[in-house]
Amino acid sequence: MPVQFTARELRAKYDAVAPVFDRMEAIMEVLGLRRWRRGLVREATGRVLEVAAGTGRNFPFYPEGIDLTAVDISPGMLAVARARARKIGRPVDLIIADAERLPFPDRSFDTVVSTMSVCTFPDPVTALREMGRVCRPGGRILLLEHGRSSVGWIGRWQDRRADRNAQYVGCHWNREPYELAREAGLQPIKARRRLLGIFHLMRLQPAA
């Protein structure tokens, strides 16, 4: 059976790694994540929700004039995010919340953002549906995710090592983010893959 953690277990794991998480991700940031983050989140407008905001790596790239709310299941990760927001002077409302049960009314936000998170959600389709629920009609859902490579041998290697990788912080690196978004009822506007087909940049909208 594939490795799967409960929300409580994930919270504990991310609380434990929060102080060093940015260093853990440093290589991927250099390989392109930072550039892709910047290009994606600068499209956010109006009232913005970031889901699974982690340590706030996206905060420097949001445009001025937005009203930003950020949620994460881990208090430890949000503590780092709070320090980052304070350092760069970014106003943000930080809330501890589970992506699969967002504490907001329907159609609350103009833009919903999530990056590098679908791999960790215990029920990714439910989390993506929640993003669609809280996004207003005509709004945008902006996702930067990683998943199973479109290059055959790399994808097969990811499959073989998926359980071992998931043991650490619950990252299921062979999921198919685009297909999960479609299953959740989100409507694609534009989707592209990068770096051997592993990374997905998706612009979507909620179901009509």
From TrEMBL:
Domain Methyltransferase type, first and last residues per copy: 49-142
Record's protein name: Methyltransferase type 11
Gene Ontology BP term (one): methylation
Keyword Membrane tagged: no
Residues making up the signal peptide according to the UniProt record: none
Species whose genome carries this gene: Sphaerobacter thermophilus (strain ATCC 49802 / DSM 20745 / KCCM 41009 / NCIMB 13125 / S 6022)
Transmembrane spans: none
Lineage of origin: Bacteria, Pseudomonadati, Thermomicrobiota, Thermomicrobia, Sphaerobacterales
Classification via InterPro entries: Methyltransf_11 (IPR013216), Methyltransf_Superfamily (IPR050508), SAM-dependent_MTases_sf (IPR029063)
GO molecular function: S-adenosylmethionine-dependent methyltransferase activity
Record keywords: Methyltransferase, Transferase
Pfam families documented for this protein: Methyltransf_11 (PF08241)
